[in-house]
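Forum: Protein Structure Q&A
Topic: Joint prediction for protein chains with partners

I've read a bunch of threads here and the consensus seems to be that you should model interacting components together rather than docking separate models afterwards. I'd like to see that in practice. Below is the full input, 643 residues plus whatever partners are listed. Could one of the regulars post the assembled result?
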Amino acid sequence: MKILTGNDLKSGAVIWWTGRDWSIHVEDAVDVGDKADEIMGREEAARRVNVPYAIDAELDADGKVRPAHIKDRVRALGPTVRPDLTLKPAEPEALNWVI
Amino acid sequence: MYKYDQYDQAMVDARVEEFRDQTRRRLEGTLAEEHFRPLRLQNGLYLQLHAYMLRVAVPYGTLNSAQMHALGDIADKYDRGYGHFTTRQNIQYNWIKLEDAPDILADLAKVEMHAIQTSGNCIRNISSDHYAGAAADELIDPRPYAELLRQWSSFHPEFLALPRKFKIAVIASETDRAAMRLHDIGIRMVKNDAGEIGCAFYVGGGMGRTPMIGPLIRDFVPLDQLITYSEACLRVYNRYGRRDNKYKARIKILVHELGADEYARQVEEEFALLLDQGIEPPLAELERIKAYFADPDFKSGLTEELDRSDPDFALWVDRNTHAHKVPGYVSATISLKPTGGIPGDASADQIRLMAALTREYSFDECRVTHAQNIVLPHVEIGRLHELWSKLEEAGLGTPNLDQIDDIIACPGLDYCSLANARSIPVAQKISERFAANGKAGELGQLKLKISGCINACGHHHAGHIGILGVDRKGKENYQLLLGGCEAEDTSLGKITGPGFDEDGIVDAVEKATDVYLSNREDGERFLDTYRRIGMDPFKEALYG
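Posted by a regular:
Agreed with the consensus. Here's the joint model:
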């Protein structure tokens, strides 16, 4: 599957396209199929995202979206060396999802 | 240290307001990212993995306590309570909001700091010896010349769009503590046979994907021709540097392809033309700058005796202090490498504490080192124990300067959008491994450097042991290098063979150190043993 990601213009936060809006949670990302360019152009013009791009992803055993490349998994969670600064500070096992 | 005059301050203040307007237009939508990107990069604002990242310039690594304190406050007010000191003697903040960036630059300007030319194809922050002005072995203080180069290179209209970025280091000791020959231009202050002081120019060094040791281009440039000769070096590069291929655009490629002799000949030609144009700053300007670097009011007759009854303190003194030019003083290094810590990171509280200690113990001056530590350059020997006690209390008293756990590591894939692999977890695991096995102390000087990609921000080519993180079919993989050195006996590390996974590289480092321990002769560092016995025994231990 193809999902869209980018950064929030104001905060720089990593965001994911949910089909209607942008979310900081990769679990909310949806498959955009062949619509990536169209959505990115529209959303970037509206300043709802900065520097968007499409990436490959898959559904894991629990049916949750998992980016194919480790770089995007690090983006999705946060720095593996600072669990307190990730989106899931109370779930240390979340780091296994990245690696 | 240098104080801004009205021109410096006016330029920096104007730049803040200019960027405030550019940011406003970007947020309003009248400036597209493609147009805004080069503008934000010119102000040190990158977009990294998790957020915007701001890189703040620390000229030749020197800060006063007010500046250091402000850096701590910025970490609290605009970031997530910490900053990262870099291998370029700068500091980076990883969690910056675009809308805050102009205010941060305004806060920096209040303490005579900025983020200008910390990105882009321009002359970057000038780096220098972190013991400059204090070291017992230096010929003269290189900082006034580093400052002169800073002023010359700031907003230099001819050199704001070079083929690629450009880094200059200035040192004044035979001992190289600034990786001088691994810079685009490395300048070493020297004395000629007539007893005059001038500059030896090494041009075309660098790390990155094509590491090279800068060859000597000219062995003596009179001090009053420093800027003119530098301009000539830059002009030849600006004219003929490769703009068609980003990966061949650094000056090292030009010097290599032309040959050092031919490059030097072209520089001499340009130099002769420039000498007639009188571009060298007037002597009065150099004298004005020099006055800011006059020695502080050192006391005389201080004790050099030390109570070594506390073994932890004695160890810290032995490892983390350096000889000073004035009896009764030393330079003390604050390690930002606690066991299992993140190399170069310091919390806002730690940064402010270091600011306070700078004021209290070091004539209001501290330095950022390229090894991601902090130096208090002028500390009375008689007050070392008091200083160490305060550092210990704050987790800043690790006695490991130049030991295997004093690891240089770039931010790697945990933060950097260019990285292929994480550097920090590898550094943490190695640090923890050698703390647990008790071998760290036994190894003596061993410089270990880790980069998360081929761009080599972690200086892996120059590590006695170097580690390069690569992407191998979507998995992090780590190559091991041996034999690099950034000091005056500069050398580039060689890859041992196939790479390792994250745990495997930690084992591999331990095996390499075991080979050293089994083979070393009296007084030999790891690097010396490697140079004597060569790669084969290490390969045998690593790959069987």
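Residues 2-98 of chain A form one domain.
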